[in-house]
Structure formats: structure tokens, C-alpha cells
Write a structure and sequence with these properties.
about 290 residues, six-stranded antiparallel β-barrel, alpha+beta, Thrombin, subunit H
Length: about 290
């Protein structure tokens, strides 16, 4: 083999190696370029999707803003209407305030007038109260006098009742004395004398001595229309003596003594005040001072 052939073979080999390297490099570069293109394609698509989403979001936001704007416009119209209403109300309040001011002025004038009238009425009331106090004092004095007169009237009534009872007793005693005198005159005329131990004629009540001073006791027992008294012969009680019954200062009724014992007596109820009943413990008196 000649030298030229060897050089040609070597050059061919070198060219083949270089071409192989270039082919491999081109293939690798093409593969990298393809991957880069695909990567950028993916980025582009992602960016497009992002932009579409953003655009859709913006559209939605714009729609919401439009709704908000419409609502704001409606609210503005409503607020304007309310503002006009408030203006009307303020005008009405101003008119009402003017009326209230006039009414307050009229009320103040009326109040001053009423204060003047109140002052006059107070002065008249003071004078009336003083007059009433004078009348009250006079009324109290009259009531006191009336009570004294009532007490005196009660005392006089009691004295009158006692006087009537004593008068009745005296009349009975006088009648008995007259009967006994007639009997004695008849016996004396007929020559008959009444011995000391002889009883008086039938129907003649012996004269009992008048009791000196009042007698006071109380009811100790009640049996129907009959009562027992806590005073008797030792206190000067005699048969037929009238007693008046009191509960406190209230008159209840009358009792006539029928039986007498040394320290107690029994009698019959002769008079009852309307609406009253004699009770155990009620006070009995004979004579005005014992009351």
C-alpha cells in the first residue's frame, strides 16, 4: 500500500470519526432542543391556562364589581330618599320645636299666674287653718262641756232614779204606817193593845230605818231572773231595797232585794236596759255616791 493510500485511509477514518462525533453531538443537541421546546410548550400552555383563569377571575370580579356598583347606586338612591325624608322630618321638627317653644312660653306664663293664684290660695288656706284651729279649740271646749253636761245629766238622772225609788219606798212605808195607825186606832178604840212581840196586821209592812250612805257590791251568781249580791244585812241591805247594776260606767238594769242574809242578799231583776244582760261581776249600787 502506498503512502497516499495510507493517508487517504487515515483521513477517511478521521473524517468518519469527526462525522460520527458531529452526528452524535447533533443528535444529542436535537434531543435537548426537543426537550427544551416541549418544556417551553408546557410553560406556554400553563401560562395560557393561568391567563385564562386570571381572565375568567377578572370577568367574575368585574361582574361582582358591577353588581356592587349597581347596589351602591341603589343604596345611594335609597340614602338620597332617606336624606330627603330626614330633611322633611327636620323641617317638621323645626315647626314642632317652634310650637313647643310657643307652648313653653305660654306654660311659663300660666305657671307664673298659677304661682300668684297659689300664693293667694296659700294665704287664704293659712287663714282658714287658723280659723279651723280656733273652731277646733272651740269644738273641743264644747265637747268637754258636753261631756261634763252628759256626766252631770247622768248624775242627775241617777239621783232622780234614786229619789224616785226612795220616794216609792217612803210612800210604801207611809202607807204601811197609815194602815198600822188605823189598825192601832181601831184596836185602841176597841180596847185592844198591840203587844211588843205581836206581829203587825196582814198587808202592813213594818217601817225599816233609812239606810245612811250608799251601798256598793257586785253580782256573785245568776239564776234566770234571780241574782245573788255580795252585800247583805251587815252592809245595811234590807228587803225591798232597789239596786242599780253597772258594767264599768254603763248602766245595765235594776234589781229589787227579796232576801237578806248577813253578808249576801238575793233579788229579782226588775228592769233591763235594751240590748244589755246582767252578768256575774257586774257592779251593784244603792245611792248616787256609790257609783
Amino acid at each position: 500500500m502506498s503512502l497516499m493510500t495510507k493517508v487517504f485511509v487515515v483521513l477517511t477514518s478521521v473524517v468518519a470519526i469527526v462525522l460520527s462525533c458531529l452526528t452524535v453531538a447533533s443528535a444529542a443537541r436535537w434531543s435537548n432542543l426537543k426537550e427544551t421546546v416541549e418544556h417551553y410548550q408546557q410553560l406556554y400552555e400553563a401560562e395560557m391556562v393561568h391567563r385564562m383563569n386570571t381572565q375568567a377571575t377578572m370577568y367574575v370580579s368585574l361582574a361582582m364589581k358591577d353588581d356592587e356598583l349597581r347596589q351602591a347606586s341603589q343604596q345611594g338612591a335609597t340614602q338620597a330618599t332617606k336624606l330627603r325624608e330626614l330633611d322633611d322630618q327636620v323641617a317638621a321638627l323645626r315647626i314642632d320645636l317652634a310650637r313647643q317653644t310657643n307652648a313653653a312660653a305660654a306654660f311659663e306664663a300660666g305657671r307664673k299666674k298659677l304661682e300668684e293664684l297659689l300664693g293667694v290660695q296659700t294665704a287664704e288656706l293659712t287663714n282658714t287653718q287658723k280659723h279651723n284651729q280656733v273652731l277646733l279649740a272651740q269644738n273641743i271646749d264644747l265637747q268637754t262641756r258636753n261631756q261634763r253636761l252628759a256626766t252631770r245629766n247622768l248624775e242627775v238622772t241617777g239621783q232622780f232614779t234614786v229619789a224616785i225609788d226612795e220616794n216609792r219606798n217612803l210612800q210604801e212605808k207611809l202607807y204601811a204606817a197609815e194602815q198600822m195607825t188605823k189598825e192601832l186606832q181601831q184596836r185602841t178604840a176597841g180596847g185592844v193593845r198591840l203587844t211588843a212581840g205581836e206581829k203587825p196586821p196582814v198587808g202592813v209592812t213594818p217601817v225599816s230605818p233609812v239606810v245612811a250612805g250608799p251601798i256598793s257590791g257586785e253580782i256573785v251568781a245568776i239564776d234566770g231572773n234571780y241574782v245573788s249580791l255580795s252585800v247583805g244585812d251587815a252592809s245595811g241591805v234590807v228587803q225591798g231595797m232597789p239596786f242599780m247594776v253597772y258594767r264599768g260606767q254603763t248602766y245595765v238594769g235594776d234589781i229589787a232585794v227579796e232576801t237578806v242574809r248577813p253578808k249576801e242578799a238575793g233579788g229579782k231583776i226588775t228592769l233591763l236596759k235594751s240590748g244589755q244582760q246582767i252578768q256575774r261581776g257586774d257592779r251593784v249600787v244603792y245611792g248616787l255616791e256609790a257609783r
